[in-house]
Amino acid sequence: MLGLYVHIPFCSAICNYCNFNRGLFNAELKERYIGALMIEIRRTADGSPADTIFFGGGTPSLLEPSEVAAVIKTCQQSRSFDRNAEITLEANPETLTPERLAGFRAAGVNRLSYGVQSFRDNELQRLSRMHSATKAVDAFAMARAEGFDNISLDLMMWLPQQTVAQWLESVDTLIALGPEHASLYMLEIYPNAPLRDAMARGRWSVAPEDDAVEMYLSSLDRMDRAGYVQYEISNVARPGRYSRHNLKYWTDGEWLGFGCGAHSTRAGRRWKNLSATEEYISAVAAGGQVTTEHRALSAEDQLEEALFTGLRLNTGLDLRAVRDRYGVDIWSRYGEKLQPFVDQGVLLYDGRMLRLSRAGMLLAHEIMAVFIR
Ligand code: SF4
Question: Which protein residue has the closest C-alpha to ligand 1 atom 7?
Fold first, then answer.
């Protein structure tokens, strides 16, 4: 079944480490954007089956509940929707009140994904986030009180000035809250990020790499002990609470992306929407083409993608299934280059399944580079 991704490119302020497709909130622009989104969704209506909607951003929780309701309804009218569809809204804690949460729930949202990043105020301030740790905890309690029983929390590790113990404090707070799902990312500071200047001015540094390794491994150990299952490099969940939408990206699924900069993959083709918000709105209004960068995925592209995404998952790659589907014996083609990783214990191979060990997940880029031809 299809997944639908809806991009909401507005934020109240721009975080100093962020390189997503987003801009500052503007009520008038937002209204025109929502109108364009609904036109785009209607244009692709074909009644095909779908079972997930994911509002990502940006900060989708800046929308009014009535706007979220209208977009969901438009999605539902354009497809044949599964009754148990997973409908996720990414949310920033400072944008939430009990009334807004009740509104999102009434609109059909049944899963929330909170950008928490840290439960320590000084870390949040260094990242120029708008919320405090207390606000994040309160926003979680509010969502529970409004009946949300499927909540994901995002945390980031290897933050400026963060020690292993401080990182684990945030992890323990998350575990105490008991969300159904968590994403634990390592902060990557891109070359021109304003955070780099802030770090220079504040003389902040990040912990040595060995500490980053310890942060990753020890937090996942704690999540294991708390009953979570790691199913992807950065994602853990209570059994059965994996992100159904995100799994489509990692398991060769199909999805349509709506809104500026959104990507789509369907029927062996991939494309992207215009990135700039105004340009996207104008193209929709003019009845013109909003999509760009179309390409047909060759069999080799699809194989490469299956290898990259399959290895991200804890289940790993079933090389027999890969051979049956793509006609390629992966071990004959890449075995010689992969063997050193197997010898180091970072890649596990039992003659059929190939998967990364937990330590190997930290070397995923290096190991997957073997597949680049
Ligand atoms: S709230 Fe999220 S999308 Fe918006 S600027 Fe911050 S990190 Fe980027």
Answer: 18
